[in-house]
Protein backbone atom coordinates (compact mmCIF):
# COMPACT_ATOMS: atom_id res chain seq x y z
CA UNK A 1 0.00 0.00 0.00
CA UNK A 2 1.58 3.29 -1.06
CA UNK A 3 1.38 6.44 1.00
CA UNK A 4 -1.31 8.15 -1.05
CA UNK A 5 -3.52 5.07 -1.08
CA UNK A 6 -3.10 4.65 2.69
CA UNK A 7 -3.99 8.27 3.36
CA UNK A 8 -7.06 8.27 1.13
CA UNK A 9 -8.39 5.06 2.67
CA UNK A 10 -7.87 6.02 6.29
CA UNK A 11 -9.06 9.62 6.06
CA UNK A 12 -5.75 10.88 7.44
CA UNK A 13 -5.27 13.05 4.38
CA UNK A 14 -7.13 15.89 6.00
CA UNK A 15 -5.38 15.33 9.32
CA UNK A 16 -8.83 15.18 10.89
CA UNK A 17 -10.95 12.86 13.00
CA UNK A 18 -14.57 12.38 11.95
CA UNK A 19 -16.94 12.87 14.85
CA UNK A 20 -20.42 11.37 15.13
CA UNK A 21 -23.38 13.68 15.18
CA UNK A 22 -25.21 14.87 18.28
CA UNK A 23 -24.65 17.89 20.48
CA UNK A 24 -24.83 18.08 24.24
CA UNK A 25 -26.55 21.46 24.22
CA UNK A 26 -28.68 21.21 21.12
CA UNK A 27 -27.27 23.96 18.88
CA UNK A 28 -28.23 23.88 15.24
CA UNK A 29 -25.74 24.93 12.57
CA UNK A 30 -27.40 28.38 12.47
CA UNK A 31 -27.36 29.09 16.22
CA UNK A 32 -24.96 31.48 17.81
CA UNK A 33 -22.83 30.13 20.62
CA UNK A 34 -22.80 31.60 24.10
CA UNK A 35 -19.08 32.00 24.73
CA UNK A 36 -16.92 33.01 27.70
CA UNK A 37 -13.63 34.72 26.90
CA UNK A 38 -11.17 34.06 29.73
CA UNK A 39 -8.16 36.33 29.41
CA UNK A 40 -9.55 39.34 27.57
CA UNK A 41 -6.39 41.35 26.79
CA UNK A 42 -3.00 40.65 25.24
CA UNK A 43 -3.55 37.54 23.16
CA UNK A 44 -7.23 37.74 24.07
CA UNK A 45 -7.70 40.81 21.87
CA UNK A 46 -6.81 38.69 18.83
CA UNK A 47 -10.11 36.90 19.36
CA UNK A 48 -12.36 39.92 19.73
CA UNK A 49 -13.09 40.21 16.01
CA UNK A 50 -14.18 36.67 15.23
CA UNK A 51 -15.97 36.26 18.57
CA UNK A 52 -18.20 39.22 17.71
CA UNK A 53 -20.16 36.98 15.32
CA UNK A 54 -21.22 34.85 18.31
CA UNK A 55 -22.71 35.78 21.70
CA UNK A 56 -19.96 36.68 24.15
CA UNK A 57 -21.91 36.33 27.39
CA UNK A 58 -19.01 36.24 29.88
CA UNK A 59 -15.66 37.99 30.25
CA UNK A 60 -13.03 37.02 32.80
CA UNK A 61 -9.72 38.69 33.60
CA UNK A 62 -7.65 39.40 36.69
CA UNK A 63 -6.93 42.93 35.41
CA UNK A 64 -9.94 45.13 36.15
CA UNK A 65 -8.96 47.87 33.70
CA UNK A 66 -8.59 45.44 30.84
CA UNK A 67 -11.88 43.83 31.81
CA UNK A 68 -13.53 47.23 31.52
CA UNK A 69 -12.08 47.82 28.07
CA UNK A 70 -13.29 44.44 26.84
CA UNK A 71 -16.74 45.15 28.27
CA UNK A 72 -17.01 48.10 25.87
CA UNK A 73 -16.58 45.61 23.01
CA UNK A 74 -19.03 43.11 24.53
CA UNK A 75 -21.38 45.24 26.71
CA UNK A 76 -23.91 42.47 27.38
CA UNK A 77 -21.38 40.11 28.94
CA UNK A 78 -21.19 39.30 32.63
CA UNK A 79 -17.75 39.93 34.15
CA UNK A 80 -15.56 37.85 36.46
CA UNK A 81 -12.06 37.92 37.89
CA UNK A 82 -12.00 34.22 38.90
CA UNK A 83 -12.39 31.78 35.99
CA UNK A 84 -13.75 29.11 38.35
CA UNK A 85 -16.81 31.26 39.02
CA UNK A 86 -17.08 32.19 35.36
CA UNK A 87 -17.40 28.56 34.33
CA UNK A 88 -20.44 28.14 36.58
CA UNK A 89 -22.48 30.55 34.45
CA UNK A 90 -25.44 28.42 33.36
CA UNK A 91 -25.96 29.61 29.79
CA UNK A 92 -22.43 28.92 28.49
CA UNK A 93 -21.84 26.73 25.45
CA UNK A 94 -18.13 27.30 24.94
CA UNK A 95 -15.01 28.93 26.33
CA UNK A 96 -12.01 30.64 24.71
CA UNK A 97 -8.87 30.59 26.89
CA UNK A 98 -6.18 33.28 26.50
CA UNK A 99 -4.74 33.34 30.02
CA UNK A 100 -1.13 32.85 31.15
CA UNK A 101 0.05 29.35 30.29
CA UNK A 102 -0.14 27.84 33.77
CA UNK A 103 -3.93 28.20 33.75
CA UNK A 104 -4.52 26.52 30.37
CA UNK A 105 -4.89 22.88 31.40
CA UNK A 106 -6.87 23.81 34.52
CA UNK A 107 -9.49 25.82 32.65
CA UNK A 108 -9.64 23.29 29.81
CA UNK A 109 -10.33 20.43 32.21
CA UNK A 110 -12.93 22.34 34.18
CA UNK A 111 -14.68 23.43 31.00
CA UNK A 112 -14.75 19.93 29.52
CA UNK A 113 -16.10 18.59 32.80
CA UNK A 114 -18.96 21.09 32.43
CA UNK A 115 -19.69 19.99 28.86
CA UNK A 116 -18.31 23.12 27.23
CA UNK A 117 -16.55 23.36 23.88
CA UNK A 118 -12.99 24.66 24.37
CA UNK A 119 -10.58 26.78 22.35
CA UNK A 120 -7.27 27.13 24.22
CA UNK A 121 -4.19 29.12 23.34
CA UNK A 122 -0.87 27.26 23.23
CA UNK A 123 0.67 25.53 25.06
CA UNK A 124 -2.13 23.26 26.14
CA UNK A 125 -0.21 22.12 29.23
CA UNK A 126 3.00 22.72 31.18
CA UNK A 127 3.40 19.23 32.69
CA UNK A 128 2.99 15.74 31.25
CA UNK A 129 0.24 15.02 33.79
CA UNK A 130 -1.68 18.10 32.64
CA UNK A 131 -1.42 17.09 28.99
CA UNK A 132 -2.61 13.56 29.67
CA UNK A 133 -5.47 14.70 31.91
CA UNK A 134 -6.79 17.14 29.32
CA UNK A 135 -6.54 14.51 26.61
CA UNK A 136 -8.37 11.90 28.67
CA UNK A 137 -11.17 14.33 29.50
CA UNK A 138 -11.63 15.32 25.89
CA UNK A 139 -11.55 11.74 24.58
CA UNK A 140 -14.35 11.01 27.00
CA UNK A 141 -16.42 13.75 25.32
CA UNK A 142 -15.22 13.17 21.76
CA UNK A 143 -18.13 13.35 19.36
CA UNK A 144 -20.00 15.73 21.65
CA UNK A 145 -17.58 18.60 22.20
CA UNK A 146 -15.16 20.48 19.93
CA UNK A 147 -11.64 21.39 21.01
CA UNK A 148 -8.91 23.41 19.35
CA UNK A 149 -5.44 24.61 20.40
CA UNK A 150 -4.49 28.04 19.07
CA UNK A 151 -1.71 27.09 16.65
CA UNK A 152 -3.52 29.12 14.01
CA UNK A 153 -0.71 28.85 11.45
CA UNK A 154 -1.86 25.27 10.87
CA UNK A 155 -4.43 26.69 8.47
CA UNK A 156 -1.73 27.98 6.11
CA UNK A 157 -1.88 26.08 2.78
CA UNK A 158 1.84 25.31 3.09
CA UNK A 159 1.11 22.79 5.86
CA UNK A 160 -1.04 20.69 3.55
CA UNK A 161 1.27 20.99 0.54
CA UNK A 162 4.27 19.95 2.62
CA UNK A 163 2.42 16.96 4.04
CA UNK A 164 1.45 15.85 0.55
CA UNK A 165 5.09 15.93 -0.55
CA UNK A 166 6.16 13.75 2.37
CA UNK A 167 3.31 11.27 1.97
CA UNK A 168 3.84 10.99 -1.78
CA UNK A 169 7.54 10.28 -1.48
CA UNK A 170 9.13 13.52 -2.69
CA UNK A 171 12.09 12.83 -0.36
CA UNK A 172 11.79 9.05 -0.45
CA UNK A 173 11.40 7.15 2.79
CA UNK A 174 11.17 9.52 5.76
CA UNK A 175 14.07 9.09 8.18
CA UNK A 176 14.01 12.08 10.50
CA UNK A 177 12.36 15.41 11.31
CA UNK A 178 13.83 18.50 12.96
CA UNK A 179 12.19 21.65 14.28
CA UNK A 180 13.97 24.72 15.63
CA UNK A 181 13.46 28.20 17.03
CA UNK A 182 16.05 30.97 17.26
CA UNK A 183 14.89 33.07 20.22
CA UNK A 184 17.46 33.71 22.94
CA UNK A 185 15.76 35.17 26.03
CA UNK A 186 17.76 34.63 29.24
CA UNK A 187 16.28 34.78 32.73
CA UNK A 188 18.30 34.29 35.91
CA UNK A 189 15.40 33.40 38.18
CA UNK A 190 12.20 34.69 39.76
CA UNK A 191 12.14 38.42 40.31
CA UNK A 192 12.29 39.96 43.77
CA UNK A 193 9.33 41.95 45.07
CA UNK A 194 9.03 45.53 43.84
CA UNK A 195 6.13 47.03 45.74
CA UNK A 196 2.50 46.00 45.94
CA UNK A 197 0.42 44.94 42.95
CA UNK A 198 -1.55 47.82 41.40
CA UNK A 199 -5.17 48.09 42.58
CA UNK A 200 -6.58 46.93 39.23
CA UNK A 201 -4.64 43.61 39.30
CA UNK A 202 -5.60 40.57 41.39
CA UNK A 203 -2.11 39.12 41.76
CA UNK A 204 -3.33 36.14 43.78
CA UNK A 205 -5.65 35.06 40.96
CA UNK A 206 -2.97 35.73 38.34
CA UNK A 207 -0.75 33.26 40.21
CA UNK A 208 -3.65 30.80 40.46
CA UNK A 209 -2.31 27.26 40.88
CA UNK A 210 1.34 28.37 40.77
CA UNK A 211 3.52 28.49 43.84
CA UNK A 212 3.35 31.76 45.75
CA UNK A 213 5.69 34.42 44.35
CA UNK A 214 6.07 38.08 45.21
CA UNK A 215 4.69 40.58 42.74
CA UNK A 216 7.12 42.34 40.42
CA UNK A 217 6.21 44.59 37.47
CA UNK A 218 9.04 42.92 35.51
CA UNK A 219 6.74 39.96 34.84
CA UNK A 220 4.68 42.36 32.73
CA UNK A 221 7.42 44.43 31.11
CA UNK A 222 7.69 44.78 27.36
CA UNK A 223 3.97 44.84 26.73
CA UNK A 224 0.65 46.13 27.94
CA UNK A 225 0.61 44.54 31.41
CA UNK A 226 1.06 40.92 30.53
CA UNK A 227 0.34 41.04 26.80
CA UNK A 228 3.91 39.93 26.10
CA UNK A 229 4.13 36.32 27.23
CA UNK A 230 7.88 36.30 26.58
CA UNK A 231 8.37 38.21 29.84
CA UNK A 232 6.93 35.50 32.09
CA UNK A 233 6.62 32.21 30.21
CA UNK A 234 10.22 31.11 30.83
CA UNK A 235 9.56 30.85 34.57
CA UNK A 236 8.82 27.22 35.41
CA UNK A 237 5.72 27.97 37.50
CA UNK A 238 4.18 30.07 34.73
CA UNK A 239 5.18 28.33 31.50
CA UNK A 240 7.73 26.21 29.66
CA UNK A 241 9.53 28.87 27.65
CA UNK A 242 10.29 28.23 24.00
CA UNK A 243 9.35 24.56 24.27
CA UNK A 244 5.73 25.67 24.60
CA UNK A 245 5.83 28.93 22.66
CA UNK A 246 7.48 28.55 19.26
CA UNK A 247 7.94 24.88 20.09
CA UNK A 248 4.16 24.42 19.82
CA UNK A 249 4.07 26.07 16.41
CA UNK A 250 7.08 24.30 14.95
CA UNK A 251 6.26 20.93 16.44
CA UNK A 252 2.79 21.30 14.95
CA UNK A 253 4.50 21.82 11.59
CA UNK A 254 6.59 18.68 12.17
CA UNK A 255 3.82 16.57 13.70
CA UNK A 256 1.44 17.36 10.85
CA UNK A 257 3.76 15.61 8.42
CA UNK A 258 4.59 12.41 10.28
CA UNK A 259 1.42 11.05 11.95
CA UNK A 260 3.31 10.30 15.17
CA UNK A 261 2.16 9.19 18.57
CA UNK A 262 4.41 9.03 21.65
CA UNK A 263 8.19 8.80 21.69
CA UNK A 264 9.79 5.66 23.09
CA UNK A 265 13.02 7.33 24.16
CA UNK A 266 14.17 10.88 24.85
CA UNK A 267 17.50 12.58 25.39
CA UNK A 268 18.28 16.26 25.79
CA UNK A 269 21.18 18.61 26.44
CA UNK A 270 21.71 22.34 26.71
CA UNK A 271 22.45 25.02 29.23
CA UNK A 272 22.75 24.15 32.93
CA UNK A 273 19.50 23.17 34.63
CA UNK A 274 17.90 26.01 36.57
CA UNK A 275 15.00 25.06 38.89
CA UNK A 276 13.36 28.46 38.42
CA UNK A 277 13.54 29.05 34.67
CA UNK A 278 13.50 26.90 31.55
CA UNK A 279 16.69 26.64 29.49
CA UNK A 280 17.53 29.05 26.70
CA UNK A 281 19.82 26.79 24.70
CA UNK A 282 18.50 23.26 24.32
CA UNK A 283 18.35 20.33 21.94
CA UNK A 284 16.09 17.34 22.46
CA UNK A 285 15.82 14.13 20.45
CA UNK A 286 12.87 11.75 20.42
CA UNK A 287 12.72 8.27 18.90
CA UNK A 288 9.36 7.35 17.37
CA UNK A 289 8.33 3.85 16.32
CA UNK A 290 7.18 2.93 12.82
CA UNK A 291 3.57 3.34 11.80
CA UNK A 292 1.49 2.12 8.84
CA UNK A 293 3.31 4.07 6.15
CA UNK A 294 6.81 4.86 7.46
CA UNK A 295 9.59 3.31 9.44
CA UNK A 296 10.96 4.47 12.80
CA UNK A 297 12.19 8.05 12.84
CA UNK A 298 14.00 10.49 15.08
CA UNK A 299 12.28 13.79 15.78
CA UNK A 300 14.49 16.59 17.15
CA UNK A 301 14.03 20.07 18.55
CA UNK A 302 16.66 22.84 18.74
CA UNK A 303 16.35 26.26 20.38
CA UNK A 304 18.19 29.28 21.72
CA UNK A 305 21.30 29.05 19.53
CA UNK A 306 21.43 25.28 19.17
CA UNK A 307 20.86 24.45 15.51
CA UNK A 308 20.87 21.34 13.35
CA UNK A 309 23.37 21.02 10.55
CA UNK A 310 22.21 22.49 7.26
CA UNK A 311 21.95 19.92 4.46
CA UNK A 312 23.45 22.44 2.04
CA UNK A 313 26.04 25.07 2.85
CA UNK A 314 24.18 27.72 0.88
CA UNK A 315 21.20 27.57 3.27
CA UNK A 316 21.47 29.34 6.63
CA UNK A 317 18.93 27.69 8.94
CA UNK A 318 19.39 30.39 11.58
CA UNK A 319 18.31 33.01 9.04
CA UNK A 320 15.02 31.16 8.58
CA UNK A 321 14.28 31.90 12.23
CA UNK A 322 11.73 29.23 13.14
CA UNK A 323 11.50 26.24 10.85
CA UNK A 324 11.33 22.52 10.21
CA UNK A 325 13.34 20.08 8.13
CA UNK A 326 12.27 16.64 6.92
CA UNK A 327 15.00 14.19 5.92
CA UNK A 328 14.39 11.25 3.60
CA UNK A 329 16.63 8.81 1.82
CA UNK A 330 16.28 10.88 -1.37
CA UNK A 331 16.41 14.43 -0.09
CA UNK A 332 15.20 17.12 2.28
CA UNK A 333 12.27 19.49 2.69
CA UNK A 334 12.95 22.70 4.61
CA UNK A 335 9.86 24.68 5.56
CA UNK A 336 8.42 27.50 7.61
CA UNK A 337 4.81 28.65 7.85
CA UNK A 338 4.56 29.87 4.30
CA UNK A 339 7.30 28.32 2.17
CA UNK A 340 8.91 24.95 1.50
CA UNK A 341 12.12 24.04 -0.28
CA UNK A 342 12.70 20.60 -1.80
CA UNK A 343 16.35 19.56 -2.00
CA UNK A 344 16.92 16.26 -3.85
CA UNK A 345 19.91 14.35 -2.54
CA UNK A 346 21.53 11.04 -3.50
CA UNK A 347 22.14 9.04 -6.65
CA UNK A 348 18.48 8.22 -7.24
CA UNK A 349 17.07 11.62 -6.38
CA UNK A 350 16.17 12.77 -9.91
CA UNK A 351 12.51 13.25 -8.89
CA UNK A 352 11.33 10.88 -11.64
CA UNK A 353 9.58 8.94 -8.88
CA UNK A 354 7.56 11.94 -7.67
CA UNK A 355 4.53 13.55 -9.27
CA UNK A 356 2.99 16.60 -7.52
CA UNK A 357 -0.72 16.33 -6.90
CA UNK A 358 -3.26 17.97 -9.11
CA UNK A 359 -5.53 20.56 -7.53
CA UNK A 360 -8.34 18.03 -7.46
CA UNK A 361 -6.18 15.54 -5.54
CA UNK A 362 -4.82 17.96 -2.95
CA UNK A 363 -5.66 17.73 0.73
CA UNK A 364 -8.73 19.84 1.57
CA UNK A 365 -8.21 23.37 2.83
CA UNK A 366 -8.91 24.05 6.49
CA UNK A 367 -10.14 27.56 5.80
CA UNK A 368 -10.31 30.08 8.61
CA UNK A 369 -8.79 28.52 11.72
CA UNK A 370 -11.24 29.92 14.26
CA UNK A 371 -14.20 29.16 12.00
CA UNK A 372 -12.97 25.56 11.90
CA UNK A 373 -13.64 25.37 15.65
CA UNK A 374 -16.93 27.25 15.55
CA UNK A 375 -18.26 24.96 12.84
CA UNK A 376 -17.32 21.89 14.87
CA UNK A 377 -18.98 23.35 17.98
CA UNK A 378 -22.24 23.66 16.07
CA UNK A 379 -21.99 20.40 14.15
CA UNK A 380 -19.99 17.55 15.74
CA UNK A 381 -20.01 15.71 12.42
CA UNK A 382 -17.32 18.26 11.59
CA UNK A 383 -13.90 18.23 13.18
CA UNK A 384 -11.01 20.52 14.06
CA UNK A 385 -7.45 20.38 12.80
CA UNK A 386 -5.70 20.87 16.17
CA UNK A 387 -7.88 19.10 18.68
CA UNK A 388 -6.81 18.19 22.20
CA UNK A 389 -5.71 14.67 21.23
CA UNK A 390 -3.35 15.79 18.47
CA UNK A 391 -2.04 18.85 20.31
CA UNK A 392 -1.62 17.18 23.70
CA UNK A 393 0.59 14.49 22.18
CA UNK A 394 3.21 16.81 20.75
CA UNK A 395 3.27 19.04 23.85
CA UNK A 396 3.66 15.91 26.01
CA UNK A 397 6.70 15.06 23.91
CA UNK A 398 8.20 18.53 24.38
CA UNK A 399 7.61 18.34 28.13
CA UNK A 400 9.45 15.01 28.21
CA UNK A 401 12.37 16.81 26.59
CA UNK A 402 12.49 19.21 29.54
CA UNK A 403 12.42 16.28 31.96
CA UNK A 404 15.30 14.61 30.12
CA UNK A 405 17.27 17.86 30.27
CA UNK A 406 16.67 18.14 34.01
CA UNK A 407 17.65 14.53 34.70
CA UNK A 408 20.64 14.66 32.37
CA UNK A 409 20.19 11.07 31.20
CA UNK A 410 18.45 9.33 28.27
CA UNK A 411 14.93 8.24 29.19
CA UNK A 412 12.75 5.37 27.98
CA UNK A 413 9.04 6.12 27.86
CA UNK A 414 5.87 4.04 27.77
CA UNK A 415 3.31 6.42 26.30
CA UNK A 416 0.50 3.91 26.78
CA UNK A 417 0.61 4.44 30.54
CA UNK A 418 2.60 7.69 30.66
CA UNK A 419 5.57 6.35 32.58
CA UNK A 420 9.35 6.59 32.30
CA UNK A 421 10.56 3.02 32.57
CA UNK A 422 14.30 3.36 33.20
CA UNK A 423 14.43 6.13 35.81
CA UNK A 424 11.93 6.00 38.68
CA UNK A 425 12.94 9.40 40.01
CA UNK A 426 12.15 11.09 36.71
CA UNK A 427 8.48 10.10 36.99
CA UNK A 428 8.01 12.60 39.81
CA UNK A 429 8.91 15.32 37.29
CA UNK A 430 5.90 14.50 35.10
CA UNK A 431 3.69 16.46 37.48
CA UNK A 432 3.96 19.39 39.86
CA UNK A 433 2.59 20.61 43.15
CA UNK A 434 -0.16 23.22 43.10
CA UNK A 435 -1.24 25.73 45.69
CA UNK A 436 -4.00 24.61 48.07
CA UNK A 437 -7.45 25.28 46.67
CA UNK A 438 -6.50 24.77 43.02
CA UNK A 439 -7.64 21.49 41.49
CA UNK A 440 -6.43 20.42 38.05
CA UNK A 441 -9.40 18.24 37.20
CA UNK A 442 -12.24 20.03 38.96
UniProtKB/TrEMBL annotation:
Domain Gfo/Idh/MocA-like oxidoreductase N-terminal: start-end pairs: 33-134
GO molecular function, one term: nucleotide binding
Record InterPro entries: Gfo/Idh/MocA-like_OxRdtase_N, Gfo/Idh/MocA_oxidrdct_glycsds, NAD(P)-bd_dom_sf
Protein name: Gfo/Idh/MocA family oxidoreductase
Phylogenetic lineage: Bacteria, Pseudomonadati, Verrucomicrobiota, Opitutia, Puniceicoccales
Amino acid sequence: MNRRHFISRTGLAAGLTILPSGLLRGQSANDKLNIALIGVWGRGTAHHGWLAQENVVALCDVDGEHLGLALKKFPKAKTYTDWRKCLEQKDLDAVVIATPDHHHAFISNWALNRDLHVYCEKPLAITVEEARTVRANWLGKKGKLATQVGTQMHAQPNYARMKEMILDGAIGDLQGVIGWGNRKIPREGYYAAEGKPPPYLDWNLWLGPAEKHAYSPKYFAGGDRGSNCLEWNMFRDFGIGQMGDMGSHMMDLCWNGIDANFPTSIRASGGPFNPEVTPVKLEAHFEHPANDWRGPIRLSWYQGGALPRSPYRGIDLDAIGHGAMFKGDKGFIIADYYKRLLIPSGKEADLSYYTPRTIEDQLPEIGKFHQNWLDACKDPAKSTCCDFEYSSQYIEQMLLGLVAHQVGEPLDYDGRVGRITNHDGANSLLRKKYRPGWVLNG
